[in-house]
Amino acid sequence: MKRDPGLYDYLPYDKRPRIAWPNGARVAFWVAPNIEFYELEPPKNPTRSAWSRPNPDVLNYSYRDYGNRAGFWRMAEAMDRCGVRGSVSLNVAVCEHHPEVIEACVERGWELYSHGTYNTRYTFGMSEAQERALIQDSIDTIKRVSGQKLDGWLAPALTYTDNTLDLVAEMGLTYVCDLFHDDQPSPVKVRKGRLASIPYSLEMNDAIAFNVSSMTPRHYGEIIKRQFDRLHEEGRESGTVMCIPLHPYLIGQPYRLKAFEDALAYITGHDKVWLATGREIARHFLDNHFDAFEKASVPVGDL
Amino acid sequence: MDHGRYDWSMLPKRKPVEWPGKARIALWITVALEWFPLDQQGKPFKALGSLQTAYPDLRHYTLRDYGNRVGIFRVMKALEKHGIRASAAINAAVAVRYPYLMEKLKQKKWEVIGHGVDMDHLHYEGMSGENDLVSRAMSILGKPRGWLSPARSESSQTPDLLAEAGIEYLCDWVNDDMPYAFKAGGKTLHAMPLSGDIDDAALLLGMHHDEDEFRVQVTDQFDLLYEEAAKHGGRIMSLTLHPWAIGQPYRIGALESALEHIMRHSGVWPATGAEILDAWRQSAKA
Predict the structure, then answer these.
(1) SS3 for B56?
(2) At CB < 8 Å, which residues of chain B contact A?
(3) DSSP class of residue B170?
(4) Which residues pair with B32 in a beta bridge?
(5) Which ipTM score applies to this complex?
């Protein structure tokens, strides 16, 4: 086991090359709907159990299935009204189970990136070959259903091996969402390839807000605005990134939608906001700022 | 008492303290700079903020490291606006990994408080090598005067080892609002009242209070101590901040607002732990 993941060198927020977003934007803003499939009886992983209740955990299973059946539509239409494209963190199994949901995303010009195959299948204990197969399945499936090249990765259920980011880079992806160490993109240290980490703003994630931080929907709307205000202000000096990661089974609940939509409209109503996809943010960073950031970063001291 | 570390004493019966400039409140801000290793063992328990999932928990590792990379600079700006110098309770691991931060602390004339080696090397009864742990932290951090154990966890020997290593004040004990004499290693140290309650991580993470509730509790603490000080002599308002918690973009405004409220009052003396201890001892002598 490593003490330090060794994925990034040190670059303090107050001493960095300046990021300039397109058209003088201060914030690169993106929304990442997590479109997921949780299997009722998944293959068992020795490290983690999928459900908190014994099989069949009908409550927690149906709680998530709500997302694809009902929540997705509510969320997507709210995003449509605000003119925001999604960058879908996709369990690619949804392409087999619910192709209509995927069609709805592709029609809207949303990006599809990968969140593994199923959210009930963890990367823990995978061999390199198994992990490569996992990534390849995402590359192939996304290509098939949308014509898009797979560029982004968010590990399924945030589970990893020590090889995950190396493999993602080697297999041609350009960005990961798994590192929550920054409000700007960051170079990732990998064996081969050029990989960017882009802020996924985990604290803005509705699953964290509602089910970890026990936040109310109205307060969630409030913190989204505060996050935006601060990052928009700081963006005067150097471009920042803000993401709102969503789960249709959470944000798509009727009592939660309005506070979210109001916050989204608040953001899109501001000037100097780049409404982007993950792929676009990563591309811009890789093309314009990655090298300077890499050069300015310093290896961490050795204990 | 059922131990020999300190004598019994009641707060209201003590001689009122006079702060410099006849201030009512000594404002003591402590910023905890911490590193949570990826290969966490969690012995004998997991400190608040620890990694939660199976290895490798990149999620919590990077959420905490955010504090040393981004969050700290928001906190520094917020304090600088009011000319407040803080005490930095810093893990030795942070000092070694990010020497830039130690430079900044020096530049800003913040105090360094020893905060152990890292958040997965707690001090606890029956551990081996505690002396080495203490001397490692002390030598890396340049022999600080004060100490806050990671997770406030001690063995029965910790105060003695700290006293022998040259520590003058200890922040682990939360049983008073003012300093008091503490026997350790054959010497007299002082316990300094670093509140366990008025702490961003304790309120936001521990109690699941939101940032508005954080702000209200901080200002309620201040308001009461400020009033109390009018009758009972100088009081200490301690506020502990974790940049990985309060330094998030959506939260920093709550800190700024709390500081506005506090600093709007006259008779507030922002000072480091060591400065407050020195002033308290001065006042006690007079």
Answers:
(1) coil
(2) 37-39, 53-56, 58-59, 61-63, 65-66, 69-70, 73, 92-93, 96-101, 208, 210-211, 248-253
(3) E
(4) B89
(5) 0.97
The dihedral sign for the CA sequence A271, A29, A226, A64: positive
Domain B19-285 fold is TIM Barrel (3.20.20)
Q: Which residues of B touch A213 (CB under 8 A)?
A: 208
Superfamily for domain range A25-296: Glycoside hydrolase/deacetylase (3.20.20.370)
Q: Where are the domains of chain B?
A: 19-285
Peptide bond into B44 cis (omega under 30): yes
Model confidence band, residue A75 (pLDDT cutoffs 50, 70, 90): very high
- Please tell me the distance in Å from A208's CA to the nearest CA on chain B: 12
State yes or no: pLDDT of B286 exceeds 90.
no
Q: Where in chain A are the domains? A: 25-296
Closest CA to A29 of A101, A91, A73, A79: A79
Question: pTM of whole model > 0.80?
Answer: yes
Token match 């301690």: residue?
B238
CB A196 within 8 A of CB A252: no
Residue type, B147: W
**Average pLDDT of B57-70?**
98
Mean pLDDT, chain B, integer:
97
Q: Where are the beta strands (DSSP E) in chain A?
A: 27-35, 87-90, 111-114, 152-153, 175-176, 186-188, 195-197, 240-246, 273-275
Distance separating alpha carbons of residues B94 and B100, to the nearest angstrom: 10
Give the list of residues 6+ apart from residue A118 with CB closer than 8 angstroms, or none. Answer: A37, A38, A39, A42, A91, A93, A156
User: Which residues make Cβ contacts (< 8 Å) with residue A168, sequence separation at least 6?
Assistant: A135, A153, A176, A190, A195
Q: Is the peptide bond before A185 cis (omega within 30 degrees of 0)?
A: no
Nearest CB to B38; choose among A4, A13, A179: A4
Contacting residues of A for B253, CB less than 8 Å apart: 226, 229-230
- The answer for A 233-292 residues in CB contact with B (under 8 A) is 234, 242
